[in-house]
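Lecture 7 notes: from sequence to structure.

We start with a single chain of 235 residues. Read the sequence below before looking at the structure.
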Amino acid sequence: MPKYQRILLKLSGEVMAGPAGFGLDGERVDALAGELAEVAATGVQLGLVAGGGNFFRGVAAAARQMDRVTVDYMGMLATVLNALALQQALERRGVAATVMTALEMRQVAEFYLRRRALRHLEKGRVVILAGGTSNPYFSTDTAATLRALELGAQVMGKGTRVEGVYDQDPLKHSDAVLFRQISYVEVLSRGLGVIDAAAVAMCRDNRLPVVVFNMNVPGNILRMSMGEPVGTLIS
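Now the structure, written as tokens:
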């Protein structure tokens, strides 16, 4: 039985890239949609926010010559690409899904309105939220936290390439220690960069728990929604 009635799940763009590390890997996206479909089938109301790193990494070098605002808008557009790919993969599995974007693009996706998003969730549709907050200088972590709070999610899950929150980068340090539970204050005071500091502060101020877990382990999304101990709980 699911522990949570409504979840906001933040997916890093890199988990959709597969082994190539760039662009979209069709098999990985399809497998991800399969896991999300399992969660939706339990009755959990599911909101998704996808990052755009799998597309944006390819233009990172050129972006160094651009101003921050332009770069951030490019990143927002990358999240729309991932959202549309996820929508198609979910619909192929018979799961009703809608893409809502904070950037107005009528021919591509529905414009995000909180009340409309809530109606979609209540009707059992997976709501894929793209375009960040529509404002530069805000990360997709912050956008995911904002949407989780607006939509009344009981928990925010952050899917990454590592097992959870470590005391140092586990991809660079083999002796990194995994935390199974940690407070918002400690994440901020130690500068643990697995999640944006502004997002952690928002979660702390509104008492929204965050579960950071490895998206590359099959079944982890379902385990998290069931309340099983996976990854790191920030609370």
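Residues 59 and 74 are 9 Å apart (CA to CA). Keep this in mind for problem set 3.
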